[in-house]
Amino acid sequence: MDNIAYKDTKIFEQKELQELFLSVEWSSGYYPQKLVVAMRNSGSVFTAWHNEKLIGLINVLDDGMMTAYVHYLLVNPEYQGKGVGKELIRMVKERYEDYLRIMLNAYNKEIDFYQHCGFKAGENMTPMFITSLWT
Question: Which CATH number covers residue 68?
């Protein structure tokens, strides 16, 4: 798609993040002030913009040497299937090419996409988490 610009930035307006997160129906979008801080404190954040609109984002948490965790990958549904997510993954792979591993948790419906981008499912592994709902 034409007119998509990719950036390496951690600085956002609350509204930009809120609109993107809610476009994919992620409840994190209801906490835009927390998202602003979370992005600022991430190891890396790469974004996709169509004109002045934030349409995609990937953020990575890393230990500075060995392991990088892809925490969020979001693409506004209007722009899905146009290579935006693949380009954001490519940027992460380039940034962390010297790391031992890049990891992520994928929902079942996302597995094909991530495998197409070079990720492999771990054997005998189960993602585990505790979710806390903010009040």
Answer: 3.40.630.30
